[in-house]
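pinned: reference chain
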Amino acid sequence: MKRIFFALLSLALAMSMVSGCGKGPSKPADQYFDEGAALMKQGKQKEALAAVEDGLKAAPDSPRGWFYKGNVLFSMGRKEEAVAAYDKVIELDPHNAQPYYNKGTALAGLGRDEEAVDAFTRATQMDPKHAKAYNNMALVLGKLGRNDEARTAFARAEELDPSLKAPAVDAAGANVIKVK
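pinned: its structure tokens
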């Protein structure tokens, strides 16, 4: 009787191992996300994206995974897809300022300036000390000709992080504003 039990147990274990083959990632999602982040820092965007996507197969509702996917796509110049990834992060974790900031940066890169301002505004509402969000918002507001709002945003950015200095208007009056 014991032999039959152990034979069945061994068979069940072997079948479970075989049934798991080829069905996706074999390590925890966070390992894939960490690997993707490391590969991105090395400039290996295609490999980074593959690693992050493998992690998302294991954890499709991971805000971290979608955030990394957005970052990799953005670094590859695939800004529309990055915006979609940041939207997924926002859907999964709506109270985090960083995906709004990153979405705003991607939208600004696409020339979708009003949407970018909205995203930066959301980021600063969630994190009133997000200096870079104020800084980028000011740049986009200046581009839109909303100079008073740009000055206010630059002043706030500089107050939060003195290393963020507002650029002066160039000779052509290009899209940058003097705060003072």
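why pinned: Residues 113 and 140 are 6 Å apart (CA to CA). The two ends are 88 Å apart (CA to CA).
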